[in-house]
Structure formats: structure tokens, C-alpha cells
Protein 1
Amino acid sequence: MAAPSITGSHVMEGGCQCGAVRYRVEVSDNEAYLCHCRMCQKATGGVSIAFKNVDTTGLVWTGEPQWYESSPIAHRPFCAKCGTPLGFGFLGSQYLDLTVGSFDDPAFFVPTSNCGIESKHAAWEDTSHLPGVKVTELDSAIKAWGKAGLKVPD
């Protein structure tokens, strides 16, 4: 069962993996979407990417992202230090799609639509039937973190 849609103004925060780029943004709901287009696949290295569309008038960056002009019509913010993809936007638009995974609380958002379905990989649509393991229980991760003198992050 899908999570219910939430409306009303919410201030959300997020940023890159290393923390060099952070943002704070006002969102009006918890609706997000998945993009499956080839440009997003290549830009993120994934089979799809989850985005939340935001109005940039309610977006404040702490630590400026770098911008990559990914086509003649669009650009993408990212962290130059760690490489985290942070979004997608059409050039000249007041709206920007922020990557759901870069939010501090990505679980707040629910997928409500798909975009770029011409490049959608059917084999990746539903993986809920596949076996899974927590990273904290993965021997290779436990050994690697242990070798660094650290505990596997939750």
C-alpha cells in the first residue's frame, strides 16, 4: 500500500555525501517521481533516479554546488568534492528537481509518477521478491569498515 500524499508547507534539508554542499528547501507536498530517461541513467549510473520538483525561490544552498550543463537545455547540480548528483533543471527555469536520495529524510517522499518511460528497464520495476541483506550484516562491509577502525554506519 502506498503512503498517503501529504500537503502543506514543509521545510526539508539535504545535501551531498561529504557534507560540502547542503540545501534547505520549502516543499508543498511529499510527491516525487522516478525518471528513467537515458540521460538520467548516464548522469547517475542508475537504472532510474528519484526526483522532487521544487520552486527555487524556496531553495537555499549552503556550500555552492557545481553545475554540469548536461545538454543544450538542462543542467545538473553536483558536489565537486564527492561527486554526489543533487538534481536536474531546465536552463532558465525557476524549478529544479532535487534527488530524493540527497534529502536528509528521503522516506518523507512517495513516488507518484514515472518519466522517461521509453528507457525504463522492466526487470528493475519490482525487486521486492529478491533476497536482501542489511549493510550492517554484510561481511565484506563489516571487514572493510573494521579494517578502517570503524563500525559500519547505520
Note: Strands lie at 7-15, 22-29, 31-35, 49-55, 59-62, 66-71, 74-78, 87-90, 95-99, 110-115.
Protein 2
Amino acid sequence: MRLSFGQELRMVQKQVLAPRMIQSMEILQLPILALQERIEQEIQENPTLELADEDPDLPEEENLEAENPNAPTSEEKELVVDETKNNEEDFERLLNMNEEFPDHFEDRSRPSADRIDEESSRKHDTMANMVDRPESLQDYLHNQLSWFDLDPEVRQLADRIIYNLDHNGYLTGRLEDLLEPDAPPQRLTLAQRALSVVQRLDPPGVGARDERECLLLQLTPGMHCYEELRTLITNHLEDLAHNRLPVIARKTGLTMEQIHEAKEELKKLNPWPGAVFANAFVPTVTPDVTVEQDENGKYKIKVEDERTPQLFISQYYRKLLSSDEVTPETKEYIKKKINAAQWLIESIEQRRGTLSRVAQAIVDHQIAFLNNGPEAIEPLKMQQIADKVKVHVTTVSRAVDDKWIQTARGIFPLKRFFVGGTVSADGEEVAWDAVRLKLQEIVDHEDKQKPLSDDDLVKELGKAGLTVARRTVTKYRKAMNIPSSRQRRDWLKHDGPPAAE
């Protein structure tokens, strides 16, 4: 079947846009420090990219652009193109720039050997003076993941799971929450496969959803007391915690000697497989955006990219494109490199604009949080921000992924502002965070001689206008490490938790 010219043109455009879209998504997802590393790498690999440093030999007026890293330079403004244009039109424009601004870049010719040596020495000194960062749990797991021959989609989901593990190596949220909204059922199947891969990594037990699963993952057939351990972990962890060994013996048929022997083997397992990495490395958080109040009391977002290198395309290589002394093969190589440089510059600028709009929309929704604290956080879904900013919800997800915001109340991950909720007695939506805070407050002020059961906690929350199911209270109580009413009463008798054996 022969395609029409229009169909062929659309296919060509789609092929041209695909790499741009992929790179834009990758750049958008990078936090500020990773973006800086990416730019450094691109500069080393692409000779047509140069840093737009302030030149002390230029007049003061011409240095104004360098003083404001956020302001696009004149040559960058010329690089903003309609994505529907093909590459030949892009390079036609680049060639025209040489004719329109013949003297503008004269002092930015090809770097001299001395400048290259100076820049290389500067980078080497900077790297030599950096403190070695201990390997994190995520780094350790990610390196192991490279040993597996996985489908790209499964590998992507495995990476996502790894970077959502807590400091103990647990996956605390639901697997479904890591997927895109309205993801098809087969996407969850792939996520389950990815989780299975992560749970096979070292240290044993990593990627578990709870303590029981963590301990079961550490069992291997053939180990001493394997069957007994599997039985105890699966059905009798709470009995072991309360030293109800006769109950275990009666229910399992195991002898007391077998139970004691298995209990000793259980002590060799690690319920916190990621803790050793958490103790070795506490990451420094660098905010990607800052929120400040203006003179009218309105909260305004500022993208923190002052330290992000500002890029431009080398004038030396621009001129080579119109030189008759350069072979067609060399020109084609330069075109590809300039094209890649142009895409990178546009992707960085697009990242800045998208992050700014998404963060501003989040702040506009969470004004009560900024004014009154975490207990005033409002329920918020990513789809709401996507609708407001007029982008796809996956764009919002990438924009907030691993990004931090500096506020007057501290530094928070942008994902912190997306929370589900329930409906209060008066019909208003209340964030689950507010429910948890209220739950903690009720437990803190309960009669210690008569601790409240989960049913009692449901009633107390109801008195505060919060309608919550009992199973939800139990789930939150456990997640917040609040013991059961019986345990709290026993702890009171012993002046605190029983000593570890």
C-alpha cells in the first residue's frame, strides 16, 4: 500500500518528535542535582555544547544576561522552535543566525587548548575534593538489577519500586499506588513481576510489605528448622511476641524443644534489611523549588536552578556548517550533535516551565497547610493538578517525582502534598494525614489505665466529626507503631515495652 505525501510527512514528524518527547520526559523527572550531573555528562559527550559563563572582557550591558541564569539568552530564544518543523528547517535557522548576528559570538570561538586544560583541571579539582558518598540501599539494589535480563517495562517498574522503599527496605504503600492512574490490569501484573525480582535481591527480605513477608523471604529450603520457622512466622508471630509458647505447641503439635530451637533460629533473621544502609548514609536534600510570600501575602513559586549550568550552542560549530572546507560526513556529524544540543536546551527550559506551573498549582491548593501546618493539609489528587495545569496526569507524576520544596515550615517532598481523604460529618473532605494526627492525639490523651480499643478509637474519631472504618483505624495504628490497647495496658504495668530477649 502506497502512502500519501501527507501520511509520509506525518510519519517522519512522528519519528522526529519521538526522541524529543522521550528526552523531555527524562529531563522533567530529574531532581536538581541529577539534572546538573546530566548536563555535565552531555557537555563532555557533545562538543557543540558550551557553558554560557559570564565573560569579564564583555561590556557591562552584555553581561546582564549572565547575571540572571533564569533569563534565556538571545541565542536560546532563537532556538525555541515549532516541534512540527523538521530538522532541515532547524538547521536552516541556525545557519541564518550566523548571518544575522555575525559578530555576536566572535569572542566565543572554539576554546583554546589553554582554556580546555584550565576547564579540565577545574573539574578534576572539584571531583577530587568531593566527599565520597556511601552507597545507599537504592544504589546497591539498582546495581544488582543490572544482572537480570528483564523486559524494559518490568525493569522500569522494578526501579520505581526500589526508589519507593523506606529506610528499612520495606515497600510501605500499595503496589497499585506506584502505577499510573487508570493503568490496565496487565500493568499491575508486570508490577508484581517486578516486585518479585526486587524481593530476590540482596539483602534478603528487601521489598517486603510487612514484617511477616520480610522474614518469610529470608527462609530458604534446607535451612535448619525451615518448616518450623515457616509455621511460626506465618501464623504465630504475635504469640511469640507475647511468649505464648504453650498455645503455639497446642495449635501446631510442635514440642516445646522444637519451638525454642526455631525461636533461636528466628533471632538470626533480620526484620530491617535496609537499616544498615540508612545508618551509613543520610542524604542531603536539595530543594528544587522554593515558595515565598510576596508583599500581598500570596505564595509564589521559584524554581531553584541558579546553580544549573546555562547552555548555548558553540558558534565555532555553527560556522563549520556553512564552511566549504568541511566534508559532508563531518557536517552530518555536526548536525546530529547540534540537534542533540538543541533538544537538551529545549528540554531543560520545558522542565523549568512545567515544574513551576505544577508546583504553583500545588501551593495554591495547599495554602492551609502553609498557613497552619501539616494538620491542615487538604485532600489532593494528581488528576486535579493535571486538569488545572492542562497537562496529562503522567506529566504531573514526573514533575513531582523525587522533587523537594522549601517552605517556611521546612523542606517537603512535592509528593507529600498529594493525599487521599474521607468526608467529615459536615460533608467536607478531610485528608488522611489529619485523621492520623487526630488518632495520635486521642491516644496521647487517653486514660492510660484504660486504653482505648480500636472500636473506642472509631467512636472518638466520630465525635471529632471523622467517619472512619475500624479496619482503617487498625491499619493506621499499626503503621504509626501504636500498640494495641492490651499491649499499651501491659506496657503501663512494666513501665514501658518489655525488654528484648
Note: The longest strand covers residues 289-293.
Protein 3
Amino acid sequence: MIQRVRLAAAVVLVSGLLLVAPDAWFSPRVQVAVAAAAGALAVAVVALAAARYRTARDPHALFLTIGFAAIVVQSIVFGVWWPIHYGQDVGYAITVGTSTVLYQPLRSFSGPAPVYGFHFGWLLAGVCFLLGVPWWDRRGHRPIRGWLAALIVGGIVLLVDRSLAVSYRQMQGAVDPFQIRATAEPATLGWVLGFAAAAVLLVAAWRELFRRRDPPHPWIGVALAAAIALPLSAIRSPTQGLAYVQWADILQLIVPGIAFAALLSAQRTETSRMRRASDRAEEVLGGRAEIASVIAHDIRGPVSSVKSIAASTLSNYDRLSDAQRQEFVGLIDQEAQQVLSVVHQMSVALKVDAGTLDLHLARNELAAVVQVALADAETYGHPVTVDDPQRLESEVDIRWLAEAVRQGIDNAATFSPDGSAIRVSLAGTDEGPVQIEIVDAGPGVPTERRDRVFERFARWRPSGYEDAPGSGLGLFICRGIVREHGGDATLDVAPQGGTILRIRLPRRPR
């Protein structure tokens, strides 16, 4: 996506430079209409950027607001007010080649002030756009004050305005204020301001395109790339304040149009992201509340048993034989182990549900991962065999993947006939994904339920196992961990009956 945006920036930059080449033509109404429309679009950008700054306190939005405000001023003052103000009750003839045109509704002025004002407006805007992408990390510093930035920019505008006014008064004696010229030659100040504005806009566009990838920065870079030709067009053919218009003037509409679309698209994207985050937060909070209720339910029974056994042991301690005391202590240990198992499973389920697993990927043999899982698994007397003819390796977090495999082995042992074997086999191709298969001899899972048993708190039990213990989180944890590794976990039917839990993993995570 970012490559396409950069290509678009290159296209608009070249297209804008090509628009500078054609000569200007006499069309005062078009000139004023383009300036008025550009000012209106820039006002829309200012409003949207200002709202963005008020809600997010993003300095980039602040500088966009000030930059496009400068464009509004120069568009309205030198593109609309200037020719209309100087055209009141005045009529005169303009000769272009062999044709003479009476020019009365609008009146232009060939002095340097409109051109210099146009150049300076884009130079000031370019500086603001350049400052919009910070050159250094501002974390830990005080936020930029909007009123202070506006005061500084206003002071600069006032200073330059006075300088242009002095220059304008000095030109009055030498230039006929009512003389209309089809072309004009820019003075040294015009060259300096024009090239400086183009250079600043070029650097600002590059920083938007290559320093930031998040919206709206890339498309703002495209808008600034389109704007580079505008100060250059005012050097080649300084028509500002004249009754002439050129093809490059259309860029005055394109630049704020792209910027407005970029800000609006970014706002919609952020709104959608916030809505998704809110939905995800509600889902996580709902899941945590459900997990909390299960914790209260599943822990209450073992804790009550521990308390009852401990109370009986204390009250009858002297009358109990050593064998009876040992039996009671064993029951307490068994119930305590069940409590610890429930707490551990709930803790892992909370992390999986919130997506906060801290993975540390490294290249490991999958057989070693399976052995770590077997060390903690509850096999309930089921023999477990491991088949790894290829000595497969993959980049995984050995701790968390072992937890996923352990949950799968525990599930297979819970829903298998007593004494039946559980087989763990590893397979894979040289470059493709690898997989861990946990095969049991249980009754299997119907097709319509194979995906639902991976849901949180799945309570379905096969026939004959209605009273099997478990919170319904084992397969949920297994799939969640595997998906964090870039893989997936599914169920299938074993060839000789039973169930296959198939864990697929990429050799290298995405």
C-alpha cells in the first residue's frame, strides 16, 4: 500500500511540473474562481485538522491547521480580494497580439506584491508542513501550545507583510499601477521565495512519505508533492494579481482536495479502529467476567473439600491412625493440586483471551517441546508414545507451545478409555509447515462440533463422558497459543477411530 502511495506522489509531482510548461491565457474570472474554490477547500482542511488537534492533541494536525490557514489567507487576499478590490468602477482595454479586449469587471495589478505574497504563503505553509513531522522525539516534553505557534506565525506574517509593503511603495514610481502585462519577469526576491518554497515543500513531502506510515501522513505527502509546482509556476509566469490564468493553477484545488480526503479517510479509519477496540475490550471484559465466575465455581468445591478434610483431621487427630492421617493428607494434596490446576488454566486463558502472550521465538526441536509438555501433563495412566522420524525443528516459544501440547494431551487423556494409548507424531516437509498430531482412542467429536469445542468454556461431552472433569478451556488455550505462533489447531477423525488434534506451525513465523 505505501509503495502505491509513493508512486502516486511521484506521478502528481511530475504531472504538476508538466503543467508549468504551457503559457498563461487571459481569463480573469477563471483566476478568481480557482482562487476562491482553493480558499474554500483549504478552509475545510483547516476545520478538519483543527478538530483532529482538539480531540487527539496531535502536533501534526496543529501544523496542518496553521499551514493551510496561510494558504487560505493568500488565496483570498491575492487571488480574490486583490483583483476585485482594484477593479471597482474601472474599465480599460487590453491588447493581446492583434486583439483588444475591454477589461472592466476585474482589475489587475502588475506590481510584485501579489506574486511575493503567493510565494510567501506557500513558503510559510511549507515550513509548517515540515515541522508537522517532528525531527526529534518529543516524549517527555511539554506539548506544543497552539496559541503560541499561531502567535509566532502571525508575527512572521506581519513582518513580511510590512517588508512587502515597503517594497511595493518603492516600486510605485517606476511601475504604472494600471499597466496590464501578459507576462512579467520575477525579481530576485521572487526567485528566492519561489525556490525556497518549492524546496521546503519537497522536503516536507519526503518526510510525510518516508518518515511516517500511519494515516494520514502518506496521502498528505502526495498533496505536498502536487504543491511543489505552484511556487515554480509563479517564477516562470508570475500571473498572480494579473488577469491571466495558467494550467498549473488547477493544483491550487488538487492540493487541499487530497489533504481533505486524507484527513477524512484517516478519521474514519481511526473511528473504525476505536470501534473495533471497544468491541474487543467488551469481549475481553465479558470473557474475563465469565472466567471469574468459572473460577468461583470450580474452586469452591475443592476448597470446601480441603476445609472439610482439614477440619475432620484436626477434630479427630488423636483417634486417627497413621494410615488414616496419611490418607486425609493425600486427599488434601489432591484437592489442592486441582485448585492449582484450575488457577493455572484460568490464568493462561486470560492471557490468550486478551492476546498478551509474551512469545520469545527460537529454533527448537519439536520433540523437545513435546517432552516438556509430557513432564507436566495429566495422562491418568495412559501410555504416551512420541514419533519423530525427521527430528523436526521450528521457530517457536518452547514454553508456550509446550503449554498448548500439554492441553491437547490432557484433553486426549480425559476423553479416552482407561489404559488406551495416546500417540504424538511429528511430520512436515523440508520447507513447508510442520505439524504435531495428538491421536487418542476416544469416541471422537461429531463434525458439526469440531470447531465449537475450541470455544471458550465448551461444555459438550461425548456419550459416556458426561461427568468428565474440566472447565472447557483446554482446546481454547491450545488453539489460541498456536495461532499466536502463526499456525492453527483443528480436529479430525483418526483412521482407527478416535480423534486427531492436529497442530500446524510454520517453520518461520509470519
Note: The CA atoms of residues 308 and 332 lie 9 Å apart.
